């Protein structure tokens, strides 16, 4: 399985970093100009971007990528998967949160991906790694 891992430290408490990265709208800032919108709320009214929620990603009215949140362990872990994408056989994203100190948090972001077409996975993952690294650096400066 092809995968990437990005690590980023934030100078903020773990609950603040988790809250930031558990909201779909945050990814509009991190991955601009890519746009992210929630299209299905989770069953938890206090955490509409939580377990079971679905977000779409893309540009303008065209947002072909759908991701569903499959696990939320507050201040510890978020997992999601791509759904309804005929080009992707397997895609899982995992964000793990580690408290390094009272106001310092590390996020380990792992993505596993297998595209249906050979050799495409490595290309997609290379682009994702660059975008996530840059986006997370931008977010880390904002907190």
TrEMBL record:
Which InterPro entries did the record assign?
A: Polyketide_cyclase/dehydratase (IPR019587), START-like_dom_sf (IPR023393)
Return any one Pfam family short name: Polyketide_cyc2
Q: Which domain of life is it from?
A: Bacteria
What protein name is recorded for this chain? SRPBCC family protein
């Amino acid at each position: 399985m092809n995968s990437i891992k990005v690590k980023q430290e934030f100078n903020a408490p773990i609950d603040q970093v988790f809250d930031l990265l558990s909201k779909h709208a945050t990814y509009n800032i991190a991955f601009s100009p890519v746009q992210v919108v929630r299209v299905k709320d989770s069953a938890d009214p206090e955490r509409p971007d939580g377990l079971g929620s679905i977000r779409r990603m893309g540009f303008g009215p065209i947002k072909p990528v759908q991701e569903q949140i499959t696990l939320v362990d507050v201040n510890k872990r978020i997992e999601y998967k791509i759904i309804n994408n005929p080009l992707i056989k397997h895609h899982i994203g995992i964000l793990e949160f580690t408290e390094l100190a009272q106001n310092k948090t590390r996020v380990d972001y792992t993505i596993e991906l297998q595209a249906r077409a050979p050799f495409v996975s490595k290309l997609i993952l290379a682009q994702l790694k660059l975008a996530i690294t840059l986006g997370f650096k931008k977010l880390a400066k904002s907190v």
